[in-house]
Amino acid sequence: MDSKLLAVEDLHTYYRTRDGEHVHAVSGVSFELEEGRVLGIAGESGCGKSTLALSLMGFYFPPLYYKSGVIAIRGVDIMKLEYEKLRVDYLGKEISYIPQAAMNALNPTRKIGDFVVDVVQVHRPSLTEKEILTMAAERFESLNLPSRILRAFPTELSGGMKQRTVIAISTLLDPKILIADEPTSALDVSSQKAVIRMLRLLMRERVIKAMIFITHELPLLYHVADDIAVMYAGQLVEKGTAREVIFDPLHPYSHALMGSILVPDEEFMSSSRTIRTIPGAPPNLKEEIRGCRFADRCPYAFDACREHAVAERPVGKRMYRCLIDVEDLKERYVHGE
Ligand SMILES: Nc1ncnc2c1ncn2[C@@H]1O[C@H](COP(=O)(O)OP(=O)(O)OP(=O)(O)O)[C@@H](O)[C@H]1O
User: Signal sequence: where (predicted)?
Assistant: First the structure.
């Protein structure tokens, strides 16, 4: 059996602004997600992480447009499906998305249970309200969430509990792939841990078969992800296992990202490590960018970097998008250049 649950190939999506300009938010993204794996997608705010997630769900509503590329869920290119088929047969069942700040989108005037009934009935119209609430209660308990939450209003729950409730609801139909967009930001540390524990439990119990975890905090992914893709200005600039990307980043951006973080965690931060910021700002995604998108902020850039688009370069099972050879880059990192 093909273990590839998701295969994305050279995906381009953009926003059309009111003044007719195009924001090239996702520009040539390719990756695969296999059963049993958690892929972390990391990058600064505005690099296109959420747009990529929306794109994978086929949520192409203006101003977001699909330009080209393949999004294949278990071999089926969802861009070739009618939206209604995608909505009923794929969304929530094959792939589910927890948007950023989803917990704040729960209707405060409706009980959680009523919301659950609405969500499930779209996909399983034959189930009665009672059956849905029984099924939800069992699932909640199995995820260590008290089933009485179903009788509560969102305002009665803490932020952490609300987020875990949203995750439980989003996975009620056992989606094979779960995309969680910044699911732990805006939560206190203990709630963050509880959310991560729940996501791990969903994987371990095989409620979900694979996950994409989006965050701007690269080191957080060490605790969550098997593999990491680093995104910069609409492109993936590096892919590898979590350990490789965090402890041995190849691309100058990933390297700079690891050098610019503040984490009170011995494993990541030795006392001798200096914290650097990444000077400059990402390019304007409305403009055509000819060369490497990181060139203007890269300490190693040379003329050729600004002249031609830089292709992905494989290194074993890893990938990075840079003109400089790996050994050369590593040498420079060692010497702190
Ligand atoms: N509705 C929109 N119209 C036009 N441009 C948009 C729209 N939404 C996002 N963008 C632009 O698309 C690019 C990618 O944004 P996106 O929200 O996907 O980034 P992100 O990495 O998820 O950032 P954040 O973590 O802050 O949400 C940015 O340049 C952003 O300004």
Answer: none
Tally of domains within the chain: 1
Phi-psi group of 37: left, alpha or beta (phi > 0 → left; psi -120 to 50 → alpha; rest → beta): beta
Is pLDDT at 263 greater than 70 in this prediction? no
Would 44 be classed as within a structural domain? Answer: yes
Look at residue 108 and tell me if it is in a domain: no
DSSP β-bridge partners for residue 22: 16
How many angstroms separate the alpha carbon of residue 25 from the centre of ligand 1? 7
Peptide bond before 146: cis, by omega within 30 degrees of 0? Answer: no
Measured distance CA(33)–CA(211) in Å, rounded: 8
Residues 6+ apart with CB under 8 A from 122: 88, 92
**233 touches ligand 1 (CB under 6 Å):** no
**Ligand 1 atom index nearest CA of 50:** 22
261 compared with 164, residue with greater pLDDT: 164
Domain that holds residue 237: 4-94+175-335
Has residue 328 been placed in a domain?
A: yes
- Alpha helix stretches (DSSP H) within 205-325: 242-247, 252-259
In a domain, 100, yes or no: no
Q: pLDDT tens digit string along 177-216?
A: 999 999 999 899 999 999 999 999 999 999 999 999 999 9
24 Cβ below 6 A of ligand 1: no
**Which atom of ligand 1 is least distant from the CA of 234?**
14
- Concatenated DSSP letters for 59-99? ---TTEEEEEEEEEETTEEGGGS-HHHIIIIIBTTTEEEE-
Q: Which atom of ligand 1 is nearest to the CA of 17?
A: 4
Task: Report phi then psi at 218, rounded to 5.
Answer: -55, -45
